[in-house]
Design a protein that fits this description.
Chain lengths: ~350, ~375, ~280
């Protein structure tokens, strides 16, 4: 039985349609990541499910029960907000105890449960302090503890790691999945960070402009994005997109650009003008003259963690971003792609994928 | 050498409050045509340093020289620097094109070429569509690019950039970083920029100065900071995932792990350490090999991030992270073997945090 | 860099001194007058140094004034009591009505919401004389003329817009997420209002209440027309010193000093909150 079901949720402010008929389902114990650029409507969707959005149309089910007409206090959800939303005039203990007090739990039991969850989130030693005395990391954990302590069936986390520094964000990224698994709730996690989405999501829903563009496992969306928008959004550095002229002959659609030639399964919609997409990590530096590779000039090498993100220019003037494990040894290099995607120009839909043999590392 | 900071200090004195030492004895040199990043968390003193170089903050003690000329006593307008502000500070009544070309308009000799230069830099930063609009109503990313364009268009001795690309739309980040780096190199600009984002520092800078608590921790290339960090702060600050640190006790030629005394990691170089000295062993996640090795740990999580796998392992009582370039089929609870090469170990003194050895070389 | 700091400091000091003298001089002069007899006050040229007397204050407090043309009964202390009563009750009523209203305006978007808010705020700017004549006739008909209830009701025209203006600004500036979090925890909207929104808006409410008190205290025209002698506050009561025997400047001065003392003390005590509360209401985030 699904933990959270959202059916055709729309939110309209006056004339503006902020969410357009978004439907999704999250099973209990699973995490769905809601991914998209700012302004896509992710927070709005979360609030609609929590019952905090007055202009919502559509159906919301939590643990099978229809809660669409209920106020937020009766829906049995736990929410962690981006800016923590802790009660400044309550101590950390009272903040966390709030859902239990609303449920009418007895004082002794409240103490026990609050201390248990605080120990789990490693904030047991600051329970007496007030939010203004806590560090950002401690505030974030307090907000999480408050969301979890009532053991809700549905957990809605709105980019909780956004306002936390990089090191702590990395630590939480490692810890969160383990933590959440122990609770068995259905979780919806909002983020704009691609790696967070990959790390935390059993499934990912891509939201842009108020519409659900694709729903699937992170690997599926990464390898086979539905359309250009999804392809550009999901991936860091983003996919290279080049305008191409294709030729169709003999059951194949052929695209030649930047010195590469790709052969796709024939596609009528991609005839003539189309868009070719190559992910930066699908491009590799190879020895000169390798079959299937093309010569390019390096414009800049911007290292990223342990990789080198190279901005290169092909002989036909097109700019490409290459994500290479090895640094370039000179300004003139040869680059070989291994996977390319073909998108229709007009609709932006993904038409076909071409795979070439991986270059020998 | 273009820019030199000699023992620069900055102390903020506010009436009725204790003085705050924001920058302590900063010594920094930026070579001609070099791009230097000031990297650190908020409150570390990097922005104060930049503002002192620009002239918006007075230097409490010490000297700042630009091309051998002392500038810390001059007002900002006479220093010959261009600055891109964290808050953009675009002139509201002017269009973006006029904003960018503002400094050029004052210089009569550049009049003719001003328009084409504005166009050129706008194309580079992809803001050509908004050239005729005014700052109000533009997104943060667009305003930031306009502010950056305004600074980069000028041909001055020193460019100062305060968090220049922090608001950039993630879609454009990779390409624009490359283009800006290319521009800085092409024109031979000397630039200093402030950031809290190490991926930005890594991407754009030739050398990085890591600051914390007003003190310069280490200044070097990204590779030096990664391979030879001078203390545990730099070691764990720089790099994602950060370097793993394990407490240990020094013994001749080996380090005995405190969390698992039966494990003794061989050290690559004999160190003149007192027997029993408290040390920390550092190993970078990318240097841990996974597979059939004698050292065993328990997998806590395995996350595939599209191009590499981050695997958290419980080892010697601590959680360490290993990075694998390919997917590995392990799950939480599985046992896994860790391959640790003595040449990849870093040794730090536990009390002071200072580095003692990196792999086979003394620090 | 030269030393423009010293010059700036001196100029700034001079400017500040000029402003302070300009605003505080009348109050200072009245203070002086309150310790002088009528003859001393009217003497030309005015003298800064004189032999002070407490006769004015004793007259006010004891309730009798001996003048050249006879003894006068003064009801000043009763007026002072009326002022306290009217101001305090008005503020309590306007807070009870205004704070929930401000919350509603800040948090909920309903049809004509902005129009209603603006109408209520506009009462602040409407000249009292506009409504005074019809109001006095109506009051006489309903029987509210010369009653405390009637006066408190009319004082809402002064207090309520102020409360709405400032407190709404305060609610608008605070993040609704905190109240949302409380609702999601399982509490009703009333508890979210009373346990979270109101406590967190305490500074704004206090500042608004303080200001409303001061404005109600200072009001003259409503009390003048709609109340008679035994219900009048100090603002009107001061008129009693314009007697047939001549204007008793000394007593007026003493009365003024005593009547501004409560609000002055309040304002000084809460000045930080007042500035904060005022600016929050005026400047939108």
């Amino acid at each position: 039985m699904a933990g959270i079901t959202a059916e055709r949720i729309s939110v309209i402010y006056g004339k503006r349609r902020v969410l357009r008929e978004v439907s999704l389902e999250v099973a209990a114990g699973k995490t769905l990541v809601l991914f998209g650029p700012s302004g896509a409507g992710k927070s709005v969707l979360l609030r609609a499910i929590a019952g905090l959005e007055p202009n919502t149309q559509g159906l919301v089910r939590i643990a099978g029960a229809d809660v669409s007409a209920l106020g937020p206090e009766r829906r049995g959800v736990g929410v962690a907000f981006q800016n923590f939303a802790l009660y400044p005039h309550f101590s950390a203990f009272d903040n966390i105890a709030s859902p239990l007090r609303a449920q009418g739990v007895v004082a002794g039991e409240i103490g026990r449960r609050v201390e248990k969850i605080a120990a789990l989130l490693k904030i047991g030693h600051v329970l007496n302090q007030f939010p203004r005395e806590l560090s950002n990391g401690q505030r974030q954990r307090t907000a999480l503890a408050r969301a979890l302590v009532g053991e809700p069936k549905a957990l809605l986390l709105d980019d909780p790691l956004r306002n936390v520094d990089a090191k702590l964000r990395y630590e939480m990224r490692l810890e969160l999945p383990r933590l959440l698994r122990g609770f068995g709730a259905a979780v919806i996690y909002v983020t704009q960070d691609f790696r967070e989405a990959m790390a935390l999501g059993d499934e990912v829903a891509i939201l842009a402009g108020g519409e659900l563009l694709q729903l699937g496992t992170p690997e599926t969306i990464y390898a086979t994005p539905n359309n250009v928008a999804v392809a550009r959004l999901f991936g860091d550095p983003p996919m290279n997109l080049l305008a191409v002229e294709t030729e169709t002959r003999g059951g194949e659609t052929v695209a030649a650009i930047a010195g590469f030639r790709f052969r796709f399964v024939a596609s009528a919609e991609a005839a003539g003008k189309a868009l070719l997409g190559i992910r930066p990590d699908a491009l590799a530096l190879v020895p000169a003259g390798t079959r299937g590779a093309a010569p390019m000039t390096i414009l800049a090498d911007t290292p990223l963690h342990d990789r080198h993100v190279l901005l290169v220019r092909a002989k036909d003037g097109n700019e490409l971003v290459v994500s290479s494990r090895v640094p370039a040894t000179s300004d003139e290099v040869w680059v070989k792609p291994d996977v390319a995607l073909l998108f229709a120009q007009a609709s932006g839909l993904h038409m076909a994928t071409a795979v070439q043999e991986r270059a020998m590392a | 050498m273009t820019l030199q900071l000699a023992s620069v200090c900055k102390t903020y004195r506010r009436f009725g409050k204790p003085p705050v030492a924001a920058v302590k004895l900063l010594d920094l040199e930026v070579a001609d045509g070099e791009t230097m990043a000031l990297l650190g968390s908020s409150g570390c003193g990097k922005t104060s340093s930049l503002r002192m170089i620009a002239g918006f903050e007075a230097v409490t003690s010490g000297a700042i020289k630009l091309k051998a000329r002392r500038i810390d006593t001059l007002p900002p307008a006479r220093r010959g620097v261009a600055m891109a502000f964290e808050t953009y500070a675009l002139y509201p009544p002017l269009t973006i094109a006029e904003n960018i070309g503002f400094a050029l308009a004052a210089d009569r000799s550049a009049r003719g070429s001003a328009a084409s230069r504005v166009r050129q830099i706008a194309d580079l930063l992809e803001i050509t569509p908004i050239l005729e609009r005014r700052p109000a109503g533009l997104s943060g990313g667009e305003q930031q690019r306009a502010s950056l364009a305004r600074a980069l268009i000028r041909n001055v001795d020193l460019h100062l950039l305060d968090e220049p690309m922090s608001q950039l739309e993630p879609q454009l980040r990779a390409v624009l970083r490359g283009r800006v780096k290319s521009l800085l190199r092409e024109r031979g600009y000397t630039a200093v920029f402030v950031t809290h984002d190490q991926t930005e520092a890594n991407a754009l800078a030739d050398r990085i100065a890591v600051m914390e608590g007003g003190v310069l921790q280490q200044c070097g290339t990204a590779e030096e900071l990664r391979e030879r960090p001078s203390n545990t702060f730099v070691a764990t600050f720089f790099g994602e995932p950060p370097m793993n640190l394990l407490p240990a006790i020094a013994e001749p030629a080996v380090a005995r792990l405190t969390g698992a005394p039966e494990i003794a990691l061989p050290l690559a170089v004999p160190l003149a350490l007192a027997e029993g000295q408290a040390i920390e062993i550092g190993i970078r996640p990318h240097r841990i090999q996974l597979g059939n090795f004698p050292l065993r740990g328990i997998v806590l999580s395995n996350q595939w991030l599209g191009d590499e796998a981050h695997i958290a392992v419980e080892f010697a009582g601590r959680t360490i992270v290993a990075v694998s370039p390919v997917r590995i089929a392990v799950r939480a609870g599985d046992a896994i073997g860790l391959g640790i090469d003595p040449a990849s170990l870093h040794v730090f003194d536990r009390m002071s945090g200072c580095a003692l050895a990196h792999g086979g070389m003394r620090a | 860099m030269v030393r423009p700091d010293l010059l700036k400091l001196v100029l700034r000091g001079l400017a500040l001194a000029a402003v302070v003298i300009f605003f505080l001089f009348p109050i200072f002069w009245i203070l002086l007058m309150s310790f002088q007899t009528n003859t001393q006050i009217l003497r030309l040229p005015p003298r800064l140094f004189f032999a002070p007397t407490l006769a004015n204050y004793t007259a006010l407090i004891s309730g009798t004034l001996h003048t050249a043309s006879g003894t006068l009964q003064i009801t000043f202390l009763r007026n002072l009591g009326n002022s306290f009563l009217l101001s305090t009750c008005s503020v309590i009523v306007s807070l009870t009505l205004g704070v929930p209203a401000a919350y509603a305006f800040a948090r909920f978007r309903f049809r004509l919401g902005e129009n209603i808010a603006f109408t209520l705020l506009s009462f602040r700017f409407a000249p009292p004389l506009l409504v005074l004549l019809p109001l006095s006739l109506d009051f006489q008909q309903i029987g509210l003329s010369n009653t405390y209830v009637g006066l408190i009701w009319v004082y809402q025209l002064i207090c309520l817009p102020l409360i709405l203006w400032i407190v709404r600004g305060y609610f608008e500036d605070s993040s609704p997420d905190i109240e949302h979090a409380y609702r999601v925890d399982g509490h009703s909207w009333w508890r979210a209002f009373s346990r979270i929104a109101v406590p967190l808006a305490r500074p704004g409410i206090a500042a608004a209440g303080l200001l409303a008190f001061i404005f109600a205290w200072n009001n003259f025209v409503f009390a003048l027309i709609l109340a008679s002698a035994d219900k009048q506050p100090v603002t009107v009561g001061a008129l009693a010193f314009v007697t047939a025997a001549g204007i008793q400047y000394g007593q007026i001065a003493a009365a003024i000093v005593l009547s501004i003392l409560p609000t002055l003390i309040l304002a000084l005590y809460a000045q930080r909150w007042l500035v904060e509360g005022l600016s929050l209401g005026a400047v939108k985030g």
